[in-house]
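Table S5 (text form). Sequence records supplied for joint modeling of the two-component complex.
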Amino acid sequence: MSVNKPLPHDAARLHVTGAARYTDDLPTPANTLHLAFGLSEIACGVIRSINLDAVRTAPGVVSVLTADDLPGENDVSAAAHDEPLLSDGSIHYAGQPIFLVIAGSHMAARKAARLAVIEYDELPALLSIDDAIEADSCFEEPLQFLKGDPDSAIASAPHRIGGTLEMGGQEHFYLEGQVALALPQEDGDMLVHASTQHPSEIQHKVAEALAMPFNAVRVETRRMGGGFGGKESQGNALAVACAVAARLTGRPCKMRYDRDDDMIITGKRHDFRIKYRVGFDDEGRILGVDFTQYARCGWAQDLSLPVADRAMLHADNAYHLPNARIISHRLRTNTVSNTAYRGFGGPQGVLGIERVVDHIAHALGLDPLVVRQRNFYTSFNKLNDGQRPQTTPYHQKIEDSIIDELVAALVEKSDYHARRKAIADWNAQNPVLKKGIALTPVKFGISFTLTFLNQAGALVHVYSDGSIHLNHGGTEMGQGLFTKVAQVAAQSFGLPLEAVKITATDTGKVPNTSATAASSGSDLNGMAVKAACDTLRSRISDFLRDHFDAPESDVTFADGKVRVGNHELPFAEVAQLAYQNRISLSSTGFYATPDIQWDRVKGRGRPFYYFAYGAAVTEVVIDTLTGENRILRTDIIHDVGRSLNPALDIGQIEGGYVQGAGWLTTEELVWDDKGRLTTHAPSTYKIPACSDRPRIFNVALWEGGENRAETIYRSKAVGEPPFMLGISAFMALSDALAACSNGAYPALDAPATAERILTTLSRLQSGGAG
Amino acid sequence: MEIAFLLNGETIRLRIQSATTSLLEWLRESQNLTGTKEGCNEGDCGACTVMVTSLADDGSVRRQAMNACILFLPQLHGKAVRTVEGVALPDGNLHPVQQAMVEHHGSQCGFCTPGIVMSLTTAHAQGRDDFDNVLAGNLCRCTGYAPIIRAAEAAHDAPVPEWAQEDIDKLRMLKGGDGGDAYRPRDLDQFAGWYADNPDATLIAGATDVGLWVTKRLQDLPKVCFLGGIAELQRVETRDDHLWIGAGVNLNDLREFIAPFHPDFAELIRRYGSMQVRNAATIGGNIANGSPIGDGPPALIALGATLHLRRGNDRRAIPLEDFFVTYGKQDRQAGEFVEGVSIPRQADNLRCYKISKRFDQDISALCGCFNIAVEDGRVTSARIAFGGMAATPRRALNVEAALVGKAWDEATIRAAQPAFADDYAPISDMRASGEYRLMTAQNLLLRAYHESHPDHGPTRVLEVQP
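The corresponding structure-token record, covering 1236 residues in total, follows.
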């Protein structure tokens, strides 16, 4: 068996020796040129005059381009054609690329890019959510999901509360910054190496920019040094810039953003405001809820509409909402165009309902865990005796919930109840420091909500020596996709993993791919690879039956050997034999997720093939004098179905949790009153460091898990769902604040920096309303 | 300028065109050693970490993890560098740290991994196991660090590869006969004379600040002088009535030196930058650059430190707090440099509180240092200094006045707290608002009070165990 094993990442040895090549590490021809953008210093306005003389005459500069110099389309947007590579004269955010420097070195390009003299006619900028609401600035009409009659349910409920939650965005901080390299080929063709989650989109944007058909452009991606959604569309600009510059100069062109430029130019997680009204009974059961979500999308659409959709689609998280309204506003502002980020709006939606449940518990004086459990979707185990499945606010039936059992197991394993009591005792004895604890669940919908994207292709060759060449449409960003998919291929042929050569994603091998996103990588590409392998196995099997005159025999592939009837041959021998008998040993494979359909405007259908579940308990401590806070212990059980690779899955869970906790604690994006990002480097933007991980960190896979949907070896997607386990840290901070609040609800906003903890505490102690 | 150093065991002799070429740029662009990564180019992410081995004049060996992005080539003269490509064993087997990283799934995207490997390889050679400190300067966005720690623990007891000793042997051969030159002096008096005549030169000690002038501000530095070869500046001494700290003492050495005298100062330094930054950064640089948010000055001012300045053969000593005139302006004449700082010997009453968004490797939003002596329940003396509260590191004279002579009780504390508003009017920036800074400064006085009463319970979240 190759699947289900905790095998190391296929490139682990290359990683630890420094031999793994990233885009910036590829050897380049000696005449390669280097690029840098000149950026806008204002957030909104028009360019009155631009003087690039000093840029052009700076040492090492070969050429400087503005929008007028571009040979094809001036657009690097994901879909809406609203994102010019270089400003068309109007300025929409501070940091918008205005001109492109082409120079002999990276440093020469960067230095020259600062020498422009640009005069602007500044216009009032819409920076904040409030600015956009007031100006009614949005990308589309508000969307609404409606289930039942929330207004009546809330009005007639025994208890009613409401509130507002603000949550900040998040910088991806992939360790490898954005980078691309374009190598001009004969006849105007272009080969692009890019650090991207979406080679096909790069291919399309480059082709459009060069006014060439798609077949003139080939994009290759072996690996990224982290993606997290930040390389789904944000690499387009660099690849297009390189291709255009390479076309105009006839020389290879490379571009990588300096870290500060990267953080200033590229989009981030959407910050949100969520308003809520909720009605509930004495037990804390939600009777009706009304959410209004405001997403700050920035200046261009990018992926904001589906991001905002997914926030709506996760406004229920793991809770049955009998009556619900979810309204979503997609706000256009003069800030960086926010983009995909692990969870894709889901975390914001989930945080909304977790706040509501926490607030309900506080209002009733109940343990929030109890309120959570009372509102969970009914377990699929209990759906047998004629009970109908509950539905989500978008009317999808929940038929695979395991959240009840999973949380019960976690409560037991983490010793939740005893620790909650111990914490109360500890708090009673300690005046300065206070502890808090919280358990939060996650239920995350798996599938692209733009249904047609749920497809994937693969290409598998068996060479005549029995070695396998594997290719598929997914990209490797560290998540271990290539390892998992290679495990699938090795499994198909009964070969060890070493027999499978994993090769770079290449638009010339597998066309028309979807982004590696939505946690779908192994679900889609694993199935496509399996389909290709099944085709090859079937061809080989037919041939062997024929060859050995054993028409009724089973053919098995195991332990490096193929058995047919009484014959047993090494796989390599079979490959040679098939080749000599003129059997095709190459196949494509294709997969399209079945049974999903979805109308996003009506808010009805089955957008998700299945759901992934998990839960986390986090214990924290806060300092009531400074607001400093820290995670002490975390226990997690997470559902990955039947794991393709338990080691990689646990890695995703541990890493996702810490990244999610970072979003809600230390990671704070700050803009000044001119709309300029002031936290544009790791010196000012603080992702979790080593010592920020929980002191005690127990992570387990949900035992006996098996996807009820027919996925690749009954596994489940794992990329995004664990990110939301970090919400337990935020709710534990809220719990610690509640311990010193004299009864008022903390109503903590995110991120819960030391400052926000202290100002919240100060508000609570001065009697301010929550 | 000619330099000689070892790179992965091979001797490199270079004639340098630009004194501010970083090791990272040179490795990647000139040597095709692309294993060392650029993550931030400012010493904050650690993806470019390399191991630097050097020999002191007394023959002692020093191994340090350093950030190659802000390490200029001349700083390597006479030292041995190992990159991620140069730590595996000669037979092709992986270094124990590398092997453990594979076995414990310590890499995901792999981009931070070379830096992690080099920090851990350095720690392994030193026999250290305080991995949170060792890795504070290595950001990983994928793993959540847990598997990296498991790998570090697994590798800890494995033998150190032979190349570590071979580097030292080769260094002994490489050294000797180097009298330095104007740009890389070895003699303090000679440097003092030269700098008095060349006050326009940029002095570079650890380059943790000047490095950013090059990589971020994109400045050209036509005339530089590297101070790392002046052994006399790197001395620490315990004298009868004071502690002497040479300007060239790096922060890790200072931490070690000061710990027995003022443990809270040492703990503050533990949270200064990261291992890599502290290996490079010097206390002289931390003072001389005049930053309002450097962590050294508040503690030193609270201890009543004296700053020793020198121009040619003229020396003067001033109270450290008088050095900081206003933002960007210090009491330093052209051609004058910081020679050292001295701290009067005293009983330890020092409490240091660094407040930042993240505990490790963050710049302080505010840093408060309290040196309050209490006898028979009365405050007999108080020196309180803060960073991050004003345009310079500054004493809280009004607060001090509100304490001295009073009973050391909560009523006195409450009465003194408003005086912080007389001492400071802190600004708001990306690290914290002015309101938060002021409120927290006031509360830190209360923390100092609680800490003098063990029965008040723990006051620091870092000391709480699950």
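Note: Chain A touches chain B through 97 residues (CB under 8 Å).
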